[in-house]
Amino acid sequence: MTTDLFDKHRTTLERAIEACRTRESWSAYGEPSTASPAAFEAQLGRPFEDDGPGVQAVQDDEISPYTGEPLGISYLRADVDRLVAAATQAWPRWREADPRVRAGVCLEMCERIHAHAAELAHATVHTTGQSLGMSLTGSGTNALDRGVEAIAQAFAAMSRVPGSARWARAFGPSTVELTKRYRLVPRGVAVVVACASFPAWNVYPALFASLVTGNPVIVKPHPSSVLQMALAVRACRRVLTASGFDPGLIGLAVDTTAEPVTKLLVRHPAVRIVDFTGSAAFGSWVEANAFPAVAYTETSGVNSVLMHSAGELQPVLRALAGSLCLFSAQMCTSPQNIYVPRGGLPTGDGLVSVEEFAEGLADAVRAVSTVPRRAAAVLGAIQSPATLTLLDEVGKQAAARGRVLLDAQPYEHPRHPEARTSGPLLARVGIDDHDLFAAERFGPVAFVIDCDDADQALARATQDAREHGAITAFAYATDDAYLDRAENAYALAGAALTSNLTGPMPLNFSAAYSDYHVTGLNPAGNASLTDDSFVAGRFRVTQSRRAAAASRE
Amino acid sequence: MTTDLFDKHRTTLERAIEACRTRESWSAYGEPSTASPAAFEAQLGRPFEDDGPGVQAVQDDEISPYTGEPLGISYLRADVDRLVAAATQAWPRWREADPRVRAGVCLEMCERIHAHAAELAHATVHTTGQSLGMSLTGSGTNALDRGVEAIAQAFAAMSRVPGSARWARAFGPSTVELTKRYRLVPRGVAVVVACASFPAWNVYPALFASLVTGNPVIVKPHPSSVLQMALAVRACRRVLTASGFDPGLIGLAVDTTAEPVTKLLVRHPAVRIVDFTGSAAFGSWVEANAFPAVAYTETSGVNSVLMHSAGELQPVLRALAGSLCLFSAQMCTSPQNIYVPRGGLPTGDGLVSVEEFAEGLADAVRAVSTVPRRAAAVLGAIQSPATLTLLDEVGKQAAARGRVLLDAQPYEHPRHPEARTSGPLLARVGIDDHDLFAAERFGPVAFVIDCDDADQALARATQDAREHGAITAFAYATDDAYLDRAENAYALAGAALTSNLTGPMPLNFSAAYSDYHVTGLNPAGNASLTDDSFVAGRFRVTQSRRAAAASRE
To answer: Where is the signal peptide (chains A, B) (predicted)?
Structure first.
């Protein structure tokens, strides 16, 4: 339990704390040195070697969205009590370690995960359906940066509590002197429940926030997306062993769609912290049932685009199309509802009718989604077959009510002819078709919505955010007063508003150390990456006082 | 909405933030300039003048524990919806005010409450049964200091979020530049539920933590202890008016024992924050039912004294007796279970048998509780008649099982012959009589418990803390190794341990800015005065981004 690893990573930690304060652009990690699939391919069809409790069983739920083939990997499956027992047994040494020791070990874990970036990225590709590029960045370096951000915020929060104090006060003619000691005590066993399509981005912050504050952690991957988390957990466990800690501190709870264990974990009497990413319905169940555990959730929302006015329209359409296509909109930050004034959109090239806007947007989407090489890089594959069923349903509803501008058409993946793919479904509806677009339709679905004007759109969209949740929002306007109104309204509705963004950055890109992700002000989740309240409750302060002297004058 | 009040109180705020960091002794307030009962007496039997919603009704539940007479004051009673509506209507201007403006206004409120210290203290005396001395300090300056502490911690937390950032990052050959703005958004209507016997100490921190972070607050006093809170709320409302804010921002929900409104408030759909002080059972209900509101609770616990060894015994007995007598142990920090090794207690004057210890403690208690002037100053009166019933019950149980060392005898109050008083019930039992002492017996009840040794006592007491809650603990030992073990065990059990304290400071005195009160690690409550997690969740961060430029090389 030396501070060697703290010394090794101290500059990174200090730089991360500084970045959280200034919220400027920064990353702890460079591009991975390799993107070779060799390590991933060597794992296929074989047992996943790790030394945790349980018995090996093939994970039938884990099927590549690209090949349609099972990965054929068997993982150790242990029942919940055994995982909790292992975590509890490993806990004391970790709990008693200095926060600097724990921070050093956690940052070493991040570095080791990064060292396996290529293997983790291919695992991500063949479980989530992400493209390799997104797997290396969004699920790789960016996700790790959010983990480092959580370590930095938690370390800063712990550092604000002094280790001791000397306290002296007069009581009548006497002065009482006490020496006080303040101990940081972790809350207890933490459970991190991951989603199927983008596990790392939420798991790393939760895992490291709980770990660095001294808690044991059980990671519960989605049964169809186990491998990336298994690799990350193994890398962390190896760092624990190498640092003299019990690797049982971090467990992996592998379950199946047929026999899920999430509710057992959340309700386990020893569990004190739950981080959950997934559906809004399950998230509400977790928030209502986690007690006495504290719950941090990120669920889903319905994100909107407000078109008020624009200078040049084409870059806007390209930006929107890119965002609708990115990972086939299987992201909690993807926009869905695009409001356009029915009287037309004022632009630098004159008034653009809703019809022209909608056709232009459909063209811009097609320019990505129907060109196989571009589509493969941007859209990737569809994680779950259920998404295709949903697309079919929504397509029928939209056709019955409005007009389908673009059918949800698969594209042919250049390397994987069996890939489960789909371009966006784009439909034009009226603002009165609220039942069609009020809730999140997870996947590549977007609506162009005729509205009276951009203020009506703002009222509708922010009310939907308050009632159904929203994480992001987008506005285009040449009128600053409108953007001011929109920013104020979205601040209260609890979604992040991005205005007038075009160019190469994906609209819904969320930067570690800079962008607060989820606000807790609407049903899209109660936790924010990474504010003080995400880290401050994971440890508690207990104090002791000893009489130093009681001098009488 | 100027920063005049911030400028006025800036030094106090900075000093408080510094005290929270060093945790040294400090107070923002001197002794009150008067303790005159004139203002309090002028209020008796008259309507309480305030300009909130509702209709005046005499508060029959408010009966002085000293005189047995109703105070006869009528308060405005408004239904929950009207209070929430008033709070919601007053909210926008406060929410939009700069945190410095809000901090200045809150510190002015504290100053105005302090200016009415004498009136509030007499109100406290005749509702809670506290002595005048305790009403002026524990419910006066010390409670206000805990309020200032919460303001300081919340202000520091808000200050850690920058207002804006400029962010630039390369995407391929282009650099994307964004200007970002971070807004602090309060969570929403806050409810503060006060207890009957010591309302100010928990209400001030909760009230000001929620207020300074921008939330409207409804204070719900106990029906038998309204006046002090009504005076405090009115003082705060007048500061709001004088500062140009709507006084409806702070409401007072007056209810009756027959028709309580707490559950209606906690479950009101507009309520987003609940602070609760009261019984463990009701606290658990609040924690389980507050969702989607966030709940901060302080309930009750069973606090212990571990006798391992001592130098001089008499100062220890005096300190323990003082703590058992202080406000007739109607405090969540009062000790109840005193463990003594049945083989005797090693002291500087030789081995002291349990019998001798128990008799000595009883004598030390009698020296306070049977001398009317001392008793009046230390014990005060019994807030609720239910406490006398409980004392009777516990006395019978103890007599049937062990030996009653001291009956719960009333003392004759020098100025109020009708006062409801009681000295401590002190009983000697064995460690196997666990059912008698496992739970908190609220009021002046203490057990001297024969145990094998101090380590058995430590195991029993910390397990009780984990299962039934505990806030404080006390140990006496000349063996530092034992104190180290005890500190570690209590750190995990989540109670604050005070060791070897004798002299003029009451054992269970908890100092603002220095002592963390409640840990959240056991059932005695989930919130701590005042750590980051007590304040960080009362506001959220929402962000907006605007494209600054997208330059292509």
So the answer is: none
